Amino acid sequence: MKKTILVIVAVAMLLLSHNTASAKTLEQVKRQHYEQALKGPEGQQIKASVKKYSKQYNVDETLILAVIMTESSFNKNAKSPCGARGLMQLMPGTFKARNVGNNIWSIEQNIEAGTKHLAGLIARHKGNVYLALSSYNLGGAKVPIQGAVPKAAKHYVDKVFYHKAIIEGSI
User: Catalytic: which of 42, 71, 108, 112?
Assistant: First the structure.
């Protein structure tokens, strides 16, 4: 019994004394994932589409990228259990209502529809991005036009802004 405890203590001390200078923080890992996701032809297409539709619909580029990072982790083939699809995890009805094309899996069409949808939600909530993100997450009808972020969406909204800070390099 004493030997077991001594071994456990020795292993714990070894782990604690390990040089952690090479250990990466979660923010560093996420930043590296973000940078890696935007390399190559698909990454360039994501960046170009975000830039284009950010300007067209007057939505902050880093906000769009943060939504993509939160929703799909830059996986254009992502599909949620509830049926949301693509980079911006749009429900088929939401995608169709945005009238941007007929291929929800297309990088460009998905980003245009998602950005157009987000811009509409920001306008609906009179510029309140927190409530707009709540609506994006829960569905527009479930979020009041003004007021506090619903508890059901608070974690989502916090995560989007966390990813936005990582993308901006502020953490």
Answer: 71
